[in-house]
């Protein structure tokens, strides 16, 4: 049995192709779809996103993020004894993206599996890895969020295609004598499947149903604010920590207005919130580890600080993790 798990390295990777709102608007205009930089920024806070080139998969983005996280932790791929990848845009139906990543990393032999909880995926994956480390089943895990959401966007639907981007983030989570992950709280409610989903599936050698993202944005918005607040409070209560003691809130990066509402409910000023949605868009399961890595590498997130991660996504799924860096 290990006592605690702790993040010892973070990493991230964005595909080089960056599309500003103006770039995306002109691409959409060519298809007869009207949008503008002003509308996107006002409703979402998004200014740009990155899209992977054709042929680049979630495992490719994850590989670069993991290499960066391993370097930060001072470890080699062969030191890793568990790989969990959170993704809703896997390379294949099977095997898992985690297995494909494991082979690309050269970490062959350790357990590797995917977690599917859409935008809450990294919160789920981190909680599972923490539990496995605490039981002694693993000592050094790579926990990854990686997505190529550009592949499942309907570029004729302006209410969704302007919101998402591609990217990957990763952490190395190691067994530790001192506390890292302090508390977590996970939930799901499958009655909300219809408001955010990609309903298509593979059957009989064909894709049946629509393989593109469908979302009732207003319904998602209303649910998200309340659920994030509930998960944040439950996690803080479990650890006996007051919201005012948090150094950084790192929410899932879906919409600036959702983040502002969540921070306000916790009475946290926005200068305690790491924001990347403006430059990344919503990268689903990748958004939280990407934002964490941006916070660490920019020098804002420092060792010993108290961080609250929170996510909400399709399912509906939601949850939070409180940790000490
Ligand atoms: N450009 C220009 N106009 C647009 C666009 C666009 N890209 N999209 C919608 N509009 C128009 C609509 O057609 C509508 O026009 P109308 O009034 O003439 O009918 C008008 O703008 C307002 O549309 P609303 O849907 O009411 O806009 P709203 O302020 O609700 O913003 C948004 C929409 C941004 C989607 C918002 O509801 C939202 O962010 N919801 C949460 C989404 C989210 O966080 N999803 C991720 C969840 S995580 C996961 O698991 C993937």
Tell me what you see in this structure.
A hairpin with a 2-residue loop joins strand 10 and strand 11 (206-208). The protein has 2 domains: 4-177, 3-Layer(aba) Sandwich (Peroxisomal Thiolase, Chain A, domain 1), CATH 3.40.47; 182-324, Thiolase/Chalcone synthase (Peroxisomal Thiolase, Chain A, domain 1), CATH 3.40.47. The radius of gyration is 18 Å and the shape is globular. Helix 3 packs across helix 4 (97-105) and helix 7 packs parallel to helix 8 (256-265). The protein is an alpha+beta fold and 325 residues long. The protein is built from 10 helices and 15 strands.
* Overall pLDDT: 97
CATH superfamily of the largest domain: Thiolase/Chalcone synthase
Report low-confidence residues grouped into runs of 5 or more.
Answer: none
- Beta-strand content: 25-35%
| Number of domain units | 2
The largest β sheet comes out as: 5 strands, mixed
Bound small molecules, which ones? Answer: acetyl coenzyme *A
Order of helices and strands: EEHHEHEHEHEHEEEEEEHEHHHEE
Percent helix: 25-40%
Distance between the termini: 21 Å
Name the shape in a single word. Answer: globular
Classify the secondary structure makeup into a structural class. alpha+beta
CATH level 1 name of the largest domain: Alpha Beta
CATH architecture level-2 label of the largest domain:
3-Layer(aba) Sandwich
């Amino acid at each position: 049995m290990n006592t605690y798990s702790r993040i010892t390295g973070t990493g991230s990777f964005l595909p080089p192709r960056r599309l500003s709102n103006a770039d995306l608007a002109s691409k959409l205009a060519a298809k007869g779809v009207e949008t503008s930089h002003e509308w996107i920024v006002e409703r979402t806070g998004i200014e740009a996103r990155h899209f992977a080139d054709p042929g680049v998969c979630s495992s490719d983005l994850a590989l670069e993020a993991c290499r960066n996280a391993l370097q930060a932790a001072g470890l080699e791929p062969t030191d890793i004894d568990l790989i969990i990848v959170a993704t809703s845009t896997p390379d294949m139906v099977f095997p898992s993206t985690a297995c494909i990543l494991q082979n690309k990393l050269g970490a062959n032999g350790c357990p590797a599996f995917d977690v599917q909880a859409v935008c809450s995926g990294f919160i789920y994956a981190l909680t599972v890895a923490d539990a496995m480390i605490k039981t002694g089943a693993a000592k050094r895990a790579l926990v990854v969020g990686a997505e190529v959401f550009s592949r499942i966007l309907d570029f004729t639907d302006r209410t969704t295609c302007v919101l998402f981007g591609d990217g990957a983030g990763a952490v190395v989570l190691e067994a530790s004598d001192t506390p890292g992950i302090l508390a977590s709280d996970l939930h799901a409610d499958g009655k909300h499947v219809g408001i955010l989903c990609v309903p298509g599936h593979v059957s009989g050698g064909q894709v049946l149903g629509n393989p593109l993202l469908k979302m009732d944005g207003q319904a998602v918005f209303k649910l998200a604010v309340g659920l994030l607040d509930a998960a944040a409070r439950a996690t803080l209560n479990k650890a006996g920590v007051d919201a005012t003691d948090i150094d950084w809130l790192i929410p899932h990066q879906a919409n600036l207005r959702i983040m502002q509402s969540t921070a306000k409910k916790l009475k946290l000023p926005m200068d305690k919130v790491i924001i990347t949605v403006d430059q990344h868009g919503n990268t689903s399961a990748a958004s939280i580890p990407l934002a964490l890595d941006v916070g660490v590498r920019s020098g804002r997130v420092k060792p010993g600080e108290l961080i609250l991660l929170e996510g909400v996504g399709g399912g509906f799924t939601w949850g939070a993790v409180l940790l000490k860096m």
